[in-house]
Amino acid sequence: MPESDTSLRDRLVDVGVALVAAEGAQALTLREIARRAGVSHGAPRRWFPTHLELLSAIARRGFTELAARGTEALGDGTAAPGAQVAALARAYLEFARDNAGMYELMFRHDLLESGRLRLRETSLPLFGLLADLVGRARPDADARLVAGALWANLHGIAQLWAWGSLRLATGADDFGPLLDAALDAHLGAGR
Questions:
Q1: Contact between residue 134 and residue 146 where contact means Cβ atoms under 8 Å apart
Q2: Number of other residues whose CB lies within 10 A of the CB of residue 183
Q3: What secondary structure does DSSP assign to 31-93, as a single string?
Q4: CB 2 within 8 A of CB 40
């Protein structure tokens, strides 16, 4: 019985997710994904006319996983807004640490820039959640601006931690103190 279009499409994305986890974003070529999926090197083009469309489908899985981790970190949502922001921020940094290849792929400018690749519909709700929590923690501030600055700070921590720069500069063994400093800077020390 031939494999359905949907299952082969999903298998190509599954293979890409496994490949980015094992070898990083640079390993994600159409040819290699097709080879590992056991199809001809032209077969992915049936479902993904461009390489960017396949990469985008793989990155959407990363955003879906990040959202699931964020939801889990927030628990029942009864914690104080500042504590919820801290839990969400920690989940973000842990995801980046545990999924370096996927994290790199998710924030590639060429993928995010295109509105037609559907990454915005998976990435923007995460930012919306962060902005809502920041707004509740800091009702005196422009929540979107503070959330944007916090996100930029977290993204910088994630990248510099992965590269080893922050460990070298601060001597820290984990990113917890850096996260606390970022949260204090954006939410206030009394968060």
A1: yes
A2: 22
A3: HHHHHHHTS-TTTHHHH-SSHHHHHHHHHHHHHHHHHHHHHHHHTTS-S-HHHHHHHHHHHHH
A4: no
Name the residue type at position 11: R
| Residue found under tokens 């279009």 | 5
- Tens-digit pLDDT profile for residues 92-148: 999 999 999 999 999 887 776 666 667 778 888 999 999 999 999 999 999 999 999
CB within 8 Å of 156: residues ≥ 6 apart: none
Contacts of 142 (CB under 8 A, 6+ apart): none
Read off the tokens for 154.
């977290």
Structure tokens at 181: 């400093």
d(CA 37, CA 32): 8
Residue 52: both structure tokens together: 């960017």
What is d(CA 86, CA 145) in angstroms, rounded to the nearest whole number? 17
